[in-house]
């Protein structure tokens, strides 16, 4: 039988061991948490140095007859795809199409070319008017400032986009070219990348142009929610939208993806 003294000595030793184990465990947990936080801080610091396409995903589809229904389907699909990652997506919608461009010359004839027609969500917040006004009527168009200068277009002139006549009400430049919404598109600054433009029209004007445009949804992850642990799951969710959106989004067979953020 153990003596009372020996039991007390064993209890004291066991207690000391338990204290040491608890301290080591706490230190290990704290170290793991510290390293995880350091990794997350590193990821976020890296993202803060990025701009444009490096901070976004972009999916595009050919426009369908019911634009509102298609937009609602895509936005709902985006939420379902990325909700499990714990990262919210801000979504910006734009519509674009390559068009035939004809501009009236001084002698009344028209010069031919090609351009990019576009409509942008929240255009008044993303575009800065250089000259003129936004307009807004179905026959109005505002032209990127460098494209307008290269083409000699001024406020009040008329031009044809896919044969539809528009009046120039203003020229514009982007408020912030580095905004991920522009996805690093150089045309919004240069006005010319093979084609002239963009020529920004009201979304209700697309029915006047030939063929259907493409609709783009630019998705910007909330960087404040990005961690070293969920970064891979965000990229994984993006890579699976082709299959996840099947049966949920109209026109999915025309899907095109750009995913610089995933890199």
What does this structure look like?
- This protein has 263 residues and is an alpha+beta fold.
- Helices cover 34% and strands 30% of the residues.
- It has 7 helices and 11 strands.
- The mean pLDDT is 86.
The tally of helices reads 7
Overall pLDDT confidence = 86
Strand count, sense and closure of the main sheet?
6 strands, mixed, barrel
What letter string, H or E per element, gives the SSE order? HEHEEHEEHEEHEEEHHE
Oligomer: single chain
Instruction: Kindly name the structural category.
Output: alpha+beta
Distance between the termini: 69 Å
Sheet with most strands: strand arrangement? 2-3-9-5-7-6
Shape: elongated
User: Could you list the spans in which at least 5 consecutive residues all have pLDDT below 50?
Assistant: none
Tell me the number of strands: 11
Helix content: 25-40%
Indicate the proportion of strand residues.
25-35%
* Rg measurement, Å: 28 Å
SSE topology:
Blueprint (H helix, E strand, L loop, with lengths): L3 H45 L8 E6 L4 H16 L6 E16 L5 E11 L2 H4 E6 L7 E5 H7 L6 E4 L2 E11 L12 H4 L1 E2 L1 E7 L12 E8 L9 H9 L1 H4 L11 E3 L5
Parallel strand pairs: 3-9, 5-7
Antiparallel strand pairs: 1-10, 1-11, 2-3, 2-6, 2-10, 4-7, 5-9, 6-7, 8-9
């Amino acid at each position: 039988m153990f003596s009372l003294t020996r039991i007390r000595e064993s209890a004291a030793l066991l207690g000391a061991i338990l204290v040491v184990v608890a301290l080591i465990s706490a230190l290990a947990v704290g170290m793991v948490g510290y390293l995880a936080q350091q990794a997350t801080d590193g990821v976020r610091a890296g993202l803060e140095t990025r701009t444009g396409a490096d901070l976004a995903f972009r999916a595009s589809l050919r426009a369908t007859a019911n634009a509102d229904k298609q937009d609602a389907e895509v936005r709902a699909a985006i939420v379902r795809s990325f909700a499990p990652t714990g990262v919210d997506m801000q979504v910006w919608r734009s519509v674009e199409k390559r068009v035939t461009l004809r501009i009236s010359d001084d002698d009344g004839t028209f010069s031919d070319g090609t351009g990019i027609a576009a409509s942008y969500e929240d255009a008044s917040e993303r575009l800065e008017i250089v000259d003129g006004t936004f307009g807004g009527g179905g026959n109005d168009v505002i032209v990127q400032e460098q494209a307008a200068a290269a083409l000699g277009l001024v406020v009040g002139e008329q031009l044809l986009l896919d044969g539809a006549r528009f009046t120039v009400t203003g020229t514009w430049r982007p408020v912030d070219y580095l905004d991920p919404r522009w996805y690093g598109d150089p045309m919004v600054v240069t006005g010319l990348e093979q084609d002239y433009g963009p020529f920004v029209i009201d979304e209700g004007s697309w029915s006047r142009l030939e063929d259907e445009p493409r609709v783009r949804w630019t998705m910007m992850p909330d960087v404040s929610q990005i961690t070293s642990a969920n970064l891979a799951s965000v990229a994984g969710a993006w890579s699976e939208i082709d299959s996840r959106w099947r049966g949920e989004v109209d026109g999915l067979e025309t899907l095109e993806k750009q995913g610089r953020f995933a890199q």
